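Need tokens for this chain, all 726 residues.
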Amino acid sequence: MNRRHCVYSILYLCLDLRHGLYGLLLCLLCVTTVFAQERSRSSGRRGGFSLTARNAAQLPDSLLVPDSTDIGIRRINGYHLTEKLGDRILAPMDTNRLNTANSTLMEGRGIAGAYTGNIGSPWQSRIFSERKEERDFIFADVFDGDIITPSNGYFYDVKVPYTHILYTRAGGSTKREEQLKGVLTSNFGKKINAGVDFNYIYSRGQYTSNNNKLLSYRLFGNYLSDRYEAHIHLRNFNFIQNENGGLTDDRYITSPDDFEDGRRGVDSKSYPTRFTNTWNRIRGKNVFLTHRYNLGFYREMTESEAKRKQEKDAQREALKKQEEEEKNSTGRPEEQEEAEAEDIHANEVFVPVASVIHTVEYEDFRRRFISKDMGIDTCYVNRYDTVGRVPNDVSSAWNLKNTVALSLREGFQDWAKFGLTAFVSFEKRNFKMPGDSAKGAIRNMQKYDEYATFLGAELSKRRGSLLTYQGRGELCVLGDDIGEFRLTGLVKTRFRLFKKEASIQADGYIKNLRPAFFQRHYSSRYFFWDKDLKNTQRIYVGGTVGWEQTRTRLSAGVESIQNHIFFNKQGLPEQFGSNLQVITARLRQDFRFKAFGWDNELVYQTSSNKQVLALPQLSLYSNMYVTVRLAKVLMVQMGADVHYFTEYYAPYYEPATQQFINQDNIKIGNYPLVNAYVNFHLKQARFFVTGYNISKLFASPNYFSMPHYPINPMVVKLGVAVKFNN
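Here are the structure tokens for all 726 residues:
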């Protein structure tokens, strides 16, 4: 059998899910034997310390990412902005040739997460250290992975127009889930960039009343010059989630033979659920503008700076030549770039001494929980609206932030080894929700206004590799949040060890946080609370070490929380007055040998009070694969990965409040979610085929993400991603 016929046979076995795990192992054995002498090329991107950073276009490892002064070397550059001050942080581009299939799954958002079983559904990380501070509008927190902000959205500086489109599809016509997302951006001269990105998810779901539709889009742009910099971001989204409350009988998953009655099987769309014809709809807007004027002077380049400029120019030319060779090999005509205008400061360096910064941001959210299920009232203990036939709960919020800062820049003189920034921030917030009338009808909208004034400062050293650090503090001095403060700090060092990069980082914070507005006040048909909650105090200390030589990352941290807020078994917010401690340890260990790769990540965590905060003790991700190159242009990654977490009392997702509430009746976990996949990379296109949840063929059928919420059964998923940068 020649090599080509062997490859075809291997692909056939991987796509035929009837062979299950044995077919996959046979595939791995065959490919390793035939192509053991071939090695895959590295993508050139350093992976971050989390599963999400293994996948394309995710947050990088802060230990190893260079500072923003390196922006501009490549022809396609992406970066994020810091909150309030708008500093640029270099971000990885979506150029990874590996693990494309996993990055499109809900499981690809983290090593372990709880969700309602459909793409784009409400999601919460099982790793406590990955959870963010709650918004005042807590209903939007479950869509953190789908809401784009200036801090997680991309801004660009490109030498050529850049377009990236991704399309995925899974399931049959009645259960099909589809996603289309993309970005289009281009520079207009050296200083101006503009673009648009979008994400559209339409999924009918594998279960009764589990469909959803998520649409979001964003317009962004920037103007970058020596003296003046500006970034603008305008985002809008509309998310519609069909809620079913979970299965009424979990045996449809755990013991399906009990319901077949001699038939071939019961279709998952027929499984009875807690309710039907019920929806949550969340809409939101975000307008963000940050700009600064830099005070400074021009000076001639030193010899070292001139040499560095030549090296950067050489890197740009090498990248340009490589991309042109790839473009020409596809048969497309070569495009000529516009000639750049002569720069009178080409041989000079602008030295910023200070910056005057202004940032303004407006954000609003609107939510509606509505149902046409006439029996939904029987699913809840309390009913505060006795007039309406069905629930129609409406709430909204908006927030306006205005920040003014003065920054003394790092490095404008030899003695200026750090940067110092002082800022003042003003916030105005407005909330609306139905009020409780004397006649038992929650209809009349009540308005609540809050404001706050924060003073803050930041001390940072971002240049160099031997030692960098950042410390930031802010304190509310006026308004409703008076006394709230945040102190955060980070110190890291990078150095060479046996010719490979190593790194050490220590970080921590002290926070005194006022509870979110809708944790303190809420009124609806089934839930009503008005609580006087105390501020939450959080103290965290942790560290991370990494060594590129062994592909190892190890981190550990401990957090102490006073007055922790959680949602109890009745679905109501409750405050734990005693001290709560959470210990987390994380290990990432990857292996490479020629064509073989094996990526592993393990998280251990424990909570001092599991009734207040239940967490899986162990969570792991393992990905075993081989990579081969066919005909010099097609790279193939073939393998299988597994997600696993130990059994624990996982929280239940309550649709009426969109919160994850504690429960102690059902344990979830100890199920290995195995996915077999084949990724292809051909020039500027990537495509994949995934067999999702093939472990259903050989493991005990207990594939629940949360109590009564199963993940999708075994299904085939396809996807293609195409990049244009010309």
